[in-house]
Amino acid sequence: MGDDTIAHRRVRTNGVWLHVAEKGQGTLVLLIHGFPELWSTWKYQINSLAEQGYRAVAPDMRGYGDSDSPPDPASYTVLHVVGDLIGLLDELQEEQDVALVVLYHMPDRVKALVNLGIPYRPPAPVKPVPFLTKLFGEGFYISQFQEKGRAEKSFSRYDTLTVLKKFLLVNGPDLLAAPPGVEIIDFLETPSSLPPWITEEELQFSASKYDKSGFTGALNYYRAMDMNWELLGPWKGAKIRVPTKLIVGNKDAGFRSFGTKDYIEGEEFKSIVPDIEVIIIEGHHFIQLERAEQVTNEIISFFGNQSLV
């Protein structure tokens, strides 16, 4: 995407091919994106980390971009994702001193962790999807994403660029839930202009990748949520013991909903993630884009304090 200094290749891991972007030499920093993003959401961080003596690696996660996209939601559990990343680390020949942004479920292979936006929560006593649907209604975006083909069909009424704008530049209520009988993609507004932290070219690049891959792989992560709840039973009561930093935007809908603010400022979170540092900054959900320099500085200073460089 207009940067010849970032190298690209495909790596075979855990039965799939992942596309990875990488730059730099030194301690590996693995950058993990979410929905509806790609490796390119980390472009600023890749360049900055490389300049600071790190090896920055950002994959397209399975189901996204130029990586393989298995059709079955059962292929998108947290065990598959961790398996993909462990295999990637093996291919990169990194046994230790790996810094990770952002995933909580592989602490034995990482020395430090930075998470953006979403704090770790232990598995709830009940399956998450029925609970969330009962709590927030059938219009809740996670609930609407469950039925195979439903969101894909509603998304298809718009061009891919508009779909990305609606989600990446969301300017709706604190809770992403549509009124009864309305699809979430129809409910979300289409912004009339772009904020200064993202360009039309960057959005067009992502849209071109989703035009090829579709959205099914990305949506399958949500369709695997109840399966994750079942699979994570053996880890009930587990703690995240590696040094961890949570960076969250004060205007993030997720921060203002679900009791997140009280949770991360309370004692329960600190008991589950004992070595935690919480930073609340001005911004929304995609803060690695919106506050690229500030977030990158927070990441680099944290890793520096762990003597990882």
Work out the number of β strands.
Answer: 8
pLDDT below 50 for ≥5 consecutive residues: which ranges? none
Q: What is the CA–CA distance across the termini?
A: 27 Å
Main-sheet strand order equals: 1-2-4-3-5-6-7-8
Largest sheet: 8 strands, mixed
Q: What percent of residues adopt helix (DSSP H or I)?
A: 25-40%
Helical stretch tally: 15
Shape: globular
Rg estimate, integer Å: 18 Å
Overall mean confidence score, pLDDT: 91
Beta-strand residue percentage? 5-15%
Family: Belongs to the AB hydrolase superfamily. Epoxide hydrolase family.
Pfam families: Abhydrolase_1
InterPro entries: AB_hydrolase_1 (IPR000073), AB_hydrolase_fold (IPR029058), Epox_hydrolase-like (IPR000639)
Keywords: Hydrolase
Report on this model:
Keywords: Hydrolase. GO terms for molecular function: hydrolase activity. It comes from Escallonia rubra. This is AB hydrolase-1 domain-containing protein. Belongs to the AB hydrolase superfamily. Epoxide hydrolase family. This protein has 309 residues and is of the alpha/beta class. It has 15 helices and 8 strands. It has helices at 43-51, 78-91, 128-136, 141-144, 150-155, 160-168, 184-187, 200-213, 216-223, 225-231, 253-256, 260-265, 267-272, 287-290, 292-305, and strands at residues 7-13, 16-23, 27-31, 54-59, 99-101, 112-116, 244-249, 276-281. The chain has an 8-stranded mixed beta sheet with strand order 1-2-4-3-5-6-7-8. Helix 1 (43-51) links the parallel strand 3 (27-31) and strand 4. Helix 1 crosses helix 15 (292-305) and helix 6 crosses helix 8 (200-213). It is globular, with a radius of gyration of 18 Å.
